[in-house]
Design a protein that fits this description.
Elements (H helix, E strand, L loop, with lengths): L1 E3 L4 E4 L4 E5 L4 E5 L3 E6 L2 E8 L6 E3 L5 H14 L21 H15 L5 H4 L5 H14 L1
Antiparallel strand pairs: 1-2, 2-5, 3-4, 5-6, 6-7
Amino acid sequence: MASIAGASISITSFSSSLKLTTQTSSIGISSLRSVSLPISGRSFPSLRLRKGASRFRVSCAAKPETLDKVCEIVRNQLALAPDAVVNGESKFVALGADSLDTVEIVMGLEEEFGISVEEETAQSIVSVQDAADLIEKLLEKK
């Protein structure tokens, strides 16, 4: 684990490369997998390198209550057992969802949150976290 004071960036779990530039210097770091940015004393995992990716993806984690609702909707739509693990990292396919199940999940999310998800956007939703993040983004636009 490495930290950069002043820029307030914590780096954990090494497996790729990154060059960070602060106001005063440039720092090269190899084998980077994720970066955490503290905001107001709370740390949020905001940057992550996907396996096989050559660039970072910046994402805003959804509120815990949004993620919980999405998990509940996914569990109900797929009729999963109460002890089945459903969390942000859960992929719809790994939970046994086919394309029709995914459409039904998106429809359930639209109804629950009062949003409308465009078809091409819906096709990019792969995990519970993807759905929760999209919901937050759409609710922000409302």
